[in-house]
Design goal:
The chain has ten helices and 14 strands. By secondary structure, it is of the alpha/beta class. It folds into two domains: 159 residues, HUPs (Rossmann fold), CATH 3.40.50.620; 120 residues, Riboflavin kinase-like (Elongation Factor Tu (Ef-tu), domain 3, Beta Barrel), CATH 2.40.30.30. It starts with a strand and ends with a helix. Helix 7 packs antiparallel against helix 8. The longest helix has 19 residues.
């Protein structure tokens, strides 16, 4: 997959099969669209293209509204690399760009810059200034500018429409298993390992403290979780305390990960924790010995769930 940081970097294709959108989380609904995109490109002898934007449009258009996102740009690129996509364009989103009329967006960007011959779009897709463009507009523009339009209908899981909003709600409630079902993969939290207070090390459970440098990243509800850490291309079983640490008097939210099958210095390394299972709530223990006893039980529970 080739990645471009703006439309200006992209060379027009002879036969682009494209879609557009923010694709936050790259959930099952997104994967359905991207799978169809890739299949259609193969069928017509074209190349698949996703035009997405950074920062997220709502951060630009509604700066006063707190928005928590499922993926940082780095995480989104990593997930999109697994879809078979040929080209990913990450165009800077600005207020000026948001004022692009829908007809100009289609004619100048999709047709003239991308070289679109086929558009694959999701259910209820809108584009252009004030989201004025719709599937019906694209159907009208298609014959004029020489492209076809394919709409993917709403994708349901047990009659519940998948949306990034529903996934955010599940994670906020700590229901990571439901979030995994909607996403089609475990929720990922990435960050650089920084030095902590080393209390975990003193009781036999050393932790990697993650510095989450993406300020809009949604962190799941405070709890202890089991999952996997990706480190240097390898996966390790792990458990993590996400949130406050009342036993050691810390009310600051943090992400501390204990790798269950790895020993070594992780400072400065970049880890990605795939959150698989919620083990228990965050608890306040009377002593470090009591915490140590509980962590041993958590480890057993985590290894059982990850077996």
């Amino acid at each position: 997959m080739k990645v471009y940081q703006s439309l200006a970097e992209f060379n027009t294709l002879n036969c682009a099969v494209a879609t557009t959108g923010t694709f936050d989380g790259v959930h099952l609904g997104h994967k359905k669209i991207l799978s169809q995109l890739v299949q259609t490109a193969h069928k017509v002898g074209g190349e698949s293209v996703l035009l997405t934007f950074s920062p997220h449009p709502r951060l630009v258009l509604q700066p006063d509204v707190e928005l928590q996102l499922l993926t940082s740009l780095e995480e989104k690129i990593g997930l999109l690399e697994q879809t078979g996509l040929d080209h990913l364009i990450i165009h800077p989103f600005t207020k000026e760009f948001s004022r692009t009329p829908s007809l100009e967006f289609v004619r100048e960007i999709l047709v003239n810059q991308l070289g679109v011959k086929q558009l694959v779009i999701g259910y209820d897709h809108h584009f252009g200034r004030n989201r004025e463009g719709s599937f019906h507009h694209l159907k009208e523009f298609g014959p004029i500018y020489g492209f076809e339009v394919e709409e993917i209908p709403a994708l349901d899981i047990d009659a519940v429409n998948i949306s990034s909003t529903k996934i955010r709600t599940a994670l906020t409630e700590g229901n990571v298993e439901l979030a995994t079902t909607y996403l089609g993969h475990p929720y990922i939290i990435g960050g650089e390992v920084i030095k902590g207070d080393q209390i975990g090390r003193s009781i036999g459970f050393p932790t990697a403290n993650l510095d989450i440098n993406f300020q809009h990243k949604l962190i799941p509800a405070d709890a202890v979780y089991a999952g996997y850490v990706r480190l240097n291309g390898e996966h390790h079983k792990a458990m993590a305390n996400i949130g406050r640490r009342p036993t050691v008097g810390s009310n600051r939210r943090s992400v501390e990960i204990n790798l269950l099958d790895f020993e070594g210095d992780l400072y400065g390394q970049r880890l990605h924790f795939a959150v698989g299972h919620r083990l228990r709530d965050v608890m306040n223990f009377n002593s470090l010995d009591a915490l140590k006893t509980q962590l041993a039980l958590d480890k057993e529970d985590a290894l059982s769930k990850l077996a």
